[in-house]
Amino acid sequence: MVPWHHDNHGTLHTAENHMTIATDIKIGLALGSGSSRGWSHIGIIKALTARGLEPQVICGASVGAMIGASYLSGKLDTLESWVRASTKMDVLRFFEIKPTNSGLVNVTRFHKFLTDYVAPERLNIEDLKIPFAAVSTDLETGREMWFSQGNLVDAIRASMAMPGLFPPVRYDSRWLVDGGLVDPVPVGVCRALGANLVIAVNLNDNIVGKHLRKPPAPVISPDPQTKGMLANIRQTAREYSNTIFPSTANEDEAPGLFYAIANSINIFQDRITRSRLAGDPADILLTPRLSHIGMLDFHRAAEAIKEGEAVVERMYPDIERTLSHWP
Fold first, then answer.
1. Where are the beta strands (DSSP E) in the chain?
2. Alpha carbons 175 and 139: distance in angstroms, whole number
3. Interatomic CA distance for residues 262 and 73, integer angstroms
């Protein structure tokens, strides 16, 4: 694919066909929520920037906020290396052995993950190279909250605080939860921060009803030599695999609690996404084909990243056409 470049007359061309593009285009990238499907954002960002399409504004909800922040803080390659190498066991280690009243995720462990792979602990949003916002939800009023300044890691935690998994985040006398509850693909936020052309990523396309047939859980072979901590980890993996990941093919068996919650989240995110995008459509909409990846299939990062790159490849003629005809 051909790179974009500027000439001395203030216009933008491609090396292949020399189409003229107005330089007053300010591209905003709206990265949607979608749990483990969010790893595709990594492939999308890499594919867009490889073609010279550097966003001038980035906004994200939930996992979209995390990936956008990682890119802007210069840690995206580090994050990609970790997620590509991660396994289901690595995902399970983020969960408490005994769930608390606030959520299943070990907050201390997750915070360390964010500071290691997403953003330095003391980095503020206003110190980033371009405008950025993370969307969260006020738990009491249901209103959108936009983090466009302040501590970046705190903003990510508030944007990703999915009820049941993460505890709500306290900020300025409010309790905040996942931004995907109210604005799964924050197109309007990008425009409010100055973007006049928005590329949006919808991770919730065609996801409803895709995971009702549950494949059998992988078998963990017993090891008579394994004792102590390793044995406890394996036992925890068995217990959490049954709770968090699909574990039975019996269609007459009632879904487990978390499985029912996960599919309910898919339903309302699909409906909210459709409604929000109908009222505030993006100029370019990318919809990766990710319906086969479940809510917590974080160990399938390579598939999601590859599809992120592929959706940009498929949509690139439309992206070129939109840019070349921009008023």
1. 4-6, 11-14, 21-22, 27-31, 57-61, 132-138, 144-147, 169-171, 174-178, 197-201, 284-286
2. 6
3. 30
- Between strands 284-286 and 197-201, the pairing is parallel
Q: Active-site residue among 33, 36, 62, 159?
A: 62
Q: Is 178 a known active-site residue? A: yes
How far, in Å, CA of 135 to CA of 244, rounded?
Answer: 26
pTM of this prediction?
0.79
- Here the tokens at position 208 are 């409803």
Residues 231 and 236: their CA atoms lie apart, in Å, by 9
| pLDDT one-digit tens code per residue, 212-268 | 444 444 444 444 444 454 444 444 444 444 444 454 556 677 766 666 666 677 777
Looking at residue 35, what is its pLDDT? 87
Q: Which of these is catalytic: 154, 178, 205, 297?
A: 178
Q: Are 184 and 31 in contact (CB under 8 A)?
A: no
